[in-house]
Amino acid sequence: MSEKNNTTIQEKVAQLHELVAWFDGDDFQLEEAFDRFKEAEKLAETIESDLDTMKNEITILKKRFDTE
Amino acid sequence: MEKNENVFSVSDYVAITNQTLEYAYPNVFIEGEVASFKVNQGKYVFFDLKDAGASVGCFMTVWQLRMPLEDGMKVVISATPKLTPWGKFSLTIKTIQPKGEGTIKKTFELLKAKLETEGLFSPERKRQLPELPTYVGIISSTQAAGYADFVKIAERWGGVRFDVAHVQVQGAVAADQVIAAIKYFNTLETLPEVLVIIRGGGSADDLAVFNDEMLVREVAASRIPTLVGIGHEVDTTLAELAADVRAATPSNAAQILLPDKEELRRSVHYSLQSILPRIERSVGEQKTLVHRSLTTAYEAIERRHDEYVHELANDRRLLAELNPHKVLERGYAMVRGEVGVGESISIETRLNYIEAEVKNVREK
């Protein structure tokens, strides 16, 4: 569950970086730029939303570590 | 001798004395200075524990000895008092810890040199921590300030499962508890991605737990990559040196382990913002191209227009030269009609139209 979320955020951030890199690459075309920008904007919103909902899960183990 | 008075055999007396001692002092803590330290047959450790007024013989096995020991060192032992079958009083040691800054420093340096020689701290052994761990094992005291600091800073990220092994982080049993916790995490079916061992600041005595030889070896042997942050920035323990990654403090451990949501937010925002100038630049370039094309077209039209105007002017000039009236203006006359004697002809001059009759025609 949390693993999926984090992996997804990592993937999304990687996707965003890839999208942003396209704008500086040789394949850049103004005709496509608007759609790609909208896609990047949407991705950024999703990442932000994921960041808002991410919470840590802390479990104090019941096991005792006494050795005697 | 009175009738009811108990009479023991020597062996019984020693045995009952030991029972009494064990009952009265099952685990006694004593601070003193080491003297006459020696190891027999590579297995048995003997020394005297003394102060200004007394001295007591101590016994333990080398496996219990978890710190380098030398005469003159100040230590705290936990032990059980015992009367040997030879009538000698001695202390059977359970744990031994260095006491006082001088001894702690000395044992630290001796053990550090020993483990360094074995390669326990060498950089080649260090493993990288995962970039974004999702399952982390923590070994700490949940009541310690260092743990609270770690948890607070860890909130800068999310989605992480932390399993916390609550152990004592100071005192005689602390090292064994930490070792047991490391072993526990390392034998789980699903291993945590990182093992974090943390403890806040304290005195040299408190932090000495993390210089325990067995604990340091356990950290070095962990299958799970380790991140160890003990005490303040200026404190260095051997457990930290044996760890894959050393944190200056528990807070720093959380900073090393997890990225900051806000930083990622800023990075995402910056990424988006960085696109806009690229688009604007491209629009600007396109505009320039269009403008340049228009200018070229306009200049071509203008050039062609000028050429036409010039050609027209030439034609007009030529046409003007050919205008018959120009010839008349120069004094010539135009004659129309049949050229024959008696025929009527019309003559046009600059000013007049003249009707005339041909009186004579001869060849030139």
β-strand amount of chain A: 5-15%
User: What's the CATH architecture name of the largest domain in chain B?
Assistant: 3-Layer(aba) Sandwich
Overall, the morphology of chain B is rod-shaped
Q: Tell me, briefly, the overall form of chain A.
A: elongated
CATH class of the largest domain in chain B: Alpha Beta
Percentage of residues in strands of chain B: 15-25%
Mean pLDDT figure of chain B: 92
Structural domains of chain B: how many: 4
How many β strands of chain B by DSSP?
13
Poorly predicted ranges of chain B: none
- By secondary-structure content and strand pairing, the structural class of chain B works out as alpha/beta
**Biggest sheet of chain A, open or closed, and with what strands and sense?**
none
Write out the strand line-up for the largest beta sheet of chain B, numbering strands in chain order.
1-2-3-5-4
Q: Kindly provide the radius of gyration of chain B, computed on alpha-carbon positions and rounded to a whole number of angstroms.
A: 55 Å
Instruction: Please state the oligomeric state of the protein chains shown.
Output: heterodimer
Q: What is the count of helical runs of chain B? A: 10
Mean pLDDT of chain A: 84
How far apart are the first and last residues' alpha carbons of chain A, in Å? 38 Å
Domain module count of chain A: 1
Order of helices and strands of chain A: HHE
Question: Can you offer a commentary on this structure?
Answer:
The complex is a heterodimer of chains A (68) and B (364). Chain A has 2 helices and 1 strand; from the N terminus they run ααβ. By secondary structure, chain A is mainly alpha-helical. Chain A has one domain. In chain A, helix 1 runs antiparallel to helix 2. The N terminus of chain A is likely disordered. Chain B is of the alpha/beta class and 364 residues long. Chain B folds into 4 domains: 90 residues, Nucleic acid-binding proteins (OB fold (Dihydrolipoamide Acetyltransferase, E2P), Beta Barrel), CATH 2.40.50; 143 residues, Rossmann fold (3-Layer(aba) Sandwich), CATH 3.40.50; 63 residues; 33 residues, no CATH class. Chain B has 10 helices and 13 strands. A 5-stranded mixed β-barrel of chain B has the order 1-2-3-5-4. In chain B, strands 7-6-8-9-10 form a 5-stranded parallel beta sheet, sandwiched between helices. In chain B, strands 11-12-13 form a 3-stranded antiparallel beta sheet, with no helix packed on it. In chain B, a hairpin with a 5-residue loop joins strand 4 and strand 5. In chain B, 27% of the residues are buried. The model of chain B has no long low-confidence stretch (mean pLDDT 92). Chains A and B meet through helix 1, helix 2 and strand 1 of A and strand 7, helix 4 and helix 9 of B. Strand 1 of chain A pairs parallel with strand 7 of chain B, so a sheet runs across the interface.
